[in-house]
Amino acid sequence: MLRPTLLFCAVLLGCAPATRSTMRLESHGFPLETTGPDAVALPVDDRYRYGVVVGSVVTVAGARGCNGEVWLQPLGAPVRDVRSIAGARLQNMFRFPQLLPGRYELGVRCFGFQPVREKVQVRIGHVLRAGVTMNPIPRGAEAALS
Q1: Which of 41, 46, 71, 87 falls 20 to 30 Å from 99 in CA-CA distance?
Q2: Helix (H) or strand (E) holding 58
Q3: Measured between alpha carbons, how far is 95 from 23 in angstroms, rounded to an integer?
Q4: CA torsion 98→36→94→67, rounded to 10°?
Q5: Mean pLDDT, to the nearest integer, of 1-6?
Q6: How many CB atoms lie within 10 A of CB 113?
């Protein structure tokens, strides 16, 4: 009697919709643009040596930012560059300039929200944009964590 009940609970939990935070990555096909937002994000002096990662954080409810941090870490390296994110207008944006080409892990975590991380490829002259949408941690999970 207990086994069918446990099996039913496991299936029910497995089929429940996941409320994970998401990260949408955009990279324009033409590097080294001389006009537009990419030209501002990557200054002329840096275009032939570096790449840049920029982005913004919003909640699933549409609020700008959250209290937390965003980090960028070269894959396989024990160090990471961490920036804070505030829950206020215009402070939900982040920028990692002058990046050497290579593979990195970009991650965001905020209090009360599901963390998200993605592997990204930085290329010379490219601007990689990340649109992060943070989903709250379900109430039951908060109680289980405390």
Answers
A1: 87
A2: strand 51-59
A3: 15
A4: 180
A5: 54
A6: 22
Q: What's the rounded Cα separation, in Å, for the pair 83 and 73?
A: 12
Residue 72's identity, in one-letter code, is L
pTM of structure: 0.74
Residue 2 corresponds to which tokens in the numbers above?
């207990």
CB atoms within 10 A of CB 100: 11
Domain segments of the chain as ranges: 19-145
Q: Are 74 and 51 a contacting pair, CB within 8 Å?
A: no
CATH domain 19-145 topology: Immunoglobulin-like (2.60.40)
The Cα angle at residue 102 between residues 66 and 65, in degrees rounded to 5 = 5
Going from the C-alpha of 62 to that of each of 6, 43, 58, 87, 92, the distances in angstroms are: 37, 31, 6, 12, 12
Q: How far is CA 54 from CA 15, 35, 38, 47, 98, in A?
A: 35, 17, 10, 15, 11
